[in-house]
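Justification of resources, computational component.

The compute hours requested in this renewal are based largely on the per-chain cost of generating structure records like the one below. Each record pairs the submitted sequence with a full C-alpha cell output. That output is archived, and it is also reused by downstream analysis tasks.
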Amino acid sequence: RAGERIRLRLVNAANARIFGLEFQGHRPQVIALDGQPVEPHAPEDDRVVLGPAMRADLILDMTGAPGSRFRVTDTFYRGREYRLLDLAYGDTPLREGAPDTPIRLANNPLAEPDLAAAQRHEVTFGGGMMSGMMGGGMMGGMMARGMMGGMMQGMRHNGVWTINGISARGHVMDPMLTLVRGRPYVLALHNNTAWHHPIHLHGHSFRVVSRDGRPTRFREWQDTVLMVPRERAEIAFVADSPGDWMFHCHILEHMLGGMMGVI
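The structure output for this chain reads:
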C-alpha cells in the first residue's frame, strides 16, 4: 500500500546463479548483509547483487501511487534479463508518505579484529579449464572435435579448481590454515580466475576491509564475499569459534571441483 514500509530478507538459495535485482520506481536501502547489520545505504546502481548463499535485508518504502505496478527485474546476466515479479499497490493508501523512523539496526556483539596486530595470510583461488580460452579460436576447434562435453564434466568433478594451488578431494582434508583462538587475522583473497566466486567461511563472520586495494565504504560484516574475475579482497576477523571450518566457493560445482579447504 502507498505509504507502507516493507522489510525484505532476500536469500540466494541457487547453487550457481548470481542475482542482480532492480526495483523499478523504488530505491531499496540495504540494512543487513548475511545477517549482520550494516550502515543503511542504497546498493551500487540501485541493484541488489547476491551470489549463492548470500543474504540481504532491505527496507523498501512504497512510494508509488495506489493501483500502480512496478517490476522487479533480474539484470545480472547481460542479454538474459527477466521480470522476476511485480510490486502491486492496493487502491487504498496506508498513509500520506513513508515513515521517517530510523532504519539503522543495532550491531551484533562481534569481536572487532585489530588490523595492526592481525596475522596475514594469502589465499589464491585458481583454475577453470576455460579461463584462458574464452577469446581465441581454440574454443571453436575444441567444440568441433567434440571435447566440450568432457571439459564441462571435468569442471565439475575432476579437480579443475584450486585454493593455493591445491584441488581438494574427499571428505577429510588436512587444514589449509591453522589459526590460534582469540587472535585477529587478515586473509588476502586473490581470484586468479575468469569466473565469479562467492567465497564462504563457516563458523565466523568477517569484515570486508578492502577490494582491489581500496578500503570498502562500509567495512561490512559478511560470511560470503562475492569476488569478480581477477579481483583481490581483504577480509578480517577474530578466530573466536574453535573447530574445523569449511572455506569454499559456494557455487557448488566449483566447490566439488576442488575449490574448498578447511581452516
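The chain has three helices and 19 strands. The CA atoms of residues 183 and 238 lie 6 Å apart.
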